[in-house]
Amino acid sequence: xxxxxxxxxxxxxxxxxxxxxxxxxxxxxxxxxxxxxxxxxxxxxxxxxxxxxxxxxxxxxxxxxxxxxxxxxxxxxxxxxxxxxxxxxxxxxxxxxxxxxxxxxxxxxxxxxxxxxxxxxxxxxxxxxxxxxxxxxxxxxxxxxxxxxxxxxxxxxxxxxxxxxxxxxxxxxxxxxxxxxxxxxxxxxxxxxxxxxxxxxxxxxxxxxxxxxxxxxxxxxxxxxxxxxxxxxxxxxxxxxxxxxxxxxxxxxxxxxxxxxxxxxxxxxxxxxxxxxxxxxxxxxxxxxxxxxxxxxxxxxxxxxxxxxxxxxxxxxxxxxxxxxxxxxxxxxxxxxxxxxxxxxxxxxxxxxxxxxxxxxxxxxxxxxxxxxxxxxxxxxxxx
Length: 384
What we know:
Blueprint: E1 6-9, H1 12-17, E2 21-23, E3 27-29, E4 38-42, E5 48-54, E6 59-66, H2 74-90, E7 99-104, E8 113-118, E9 121-126, H3 129-133, H4 135-146, E10 152-157, E11 164-170, E12 176-180, E13 183-187, H5 202-211, E14 213-219, H6 225-232, E15 234-242, H7 245-258, E16 264-268, H8 271-277, E17 282-287, H9 299-314, E18 317-327, H10 334-348, E19 352-358, E20 377-383
Parallel strand pairs: 1-4, 9-10, 14-15, 14-17, 15-16, 17-18
Antiparallel strand pairs: 1-3, 2-6, 4-5, 5-6, 7-8, 8-9, 10-11, 12-13, 18-20, 19-20
């Protein structure tokens, strides 16, 4: 459509890959374009093939529509949102929970946007100026789709050094009580990490419920999602370690909501310091750290940190102990994460038997055209 500025793809293979990110070396602007503008993408024959948002960084265009140019209005976003929501319904995801992901960024062709539903609250994470500029249309689409099932719509913009938070519509109590596989938990959708909760670990929390045993250590515990599931299973006692006072307060409330008589210890500490200072051993350790790197340039330092962490964790496991260890760093690919556990096992002199690989839950799908979407890696291992 003539109303939008244009960019042209300079490399033929880019068209065939259908990757939603068009990098600066692969596209050339044909018109005056500003940060966050909608653009029409032309192939080498100057035929329109896609539409996206323009950005000044290494990723120059984030594609939200493949095909000929169309009008971008509330109807456009409503149809995309309805399609994304329907995928989750077909997978039966809301049947055991009232907290799930509706939109997972590039996989749903909403590049730079995630959207989570928490028992009536829609919490949106925005990671591009382009998507931030679309929010008024997207909010209208959400209200049209969910109707009375949405009480509040909240957004956080993560495109600069500071996070901008904004209540876009309605209101609701905060934190709000949600439920997942019969466990109640509080979600701080205004101040919590990401959109308020780590929904991507839902399936892995169930695995912990099934296998975690005996004396359990939950590192980087946040609000206690793994601990709650361990207590619902065969755990006899739980130690939660996190550096955030607020996270531990939420965890304490969540445990009170579900297992008020449980044998639980909450420790505010840096996890690396805690592991260095303790002489205790545990039957099960869950290690779910924040991303140690988001960029390839800092990957070597992150690999060293992950290796050191996992080595120290292995040294704190009892014989026949269970390890659930994770990385959410996108640039740490699955094979590299396996090597990290290999190096950690070498250094700790432990025979580590991998019994299962883990990834994000099904409402966080990975597009085959966007392998970067597989960001969460986990390994369930038995220590011989």
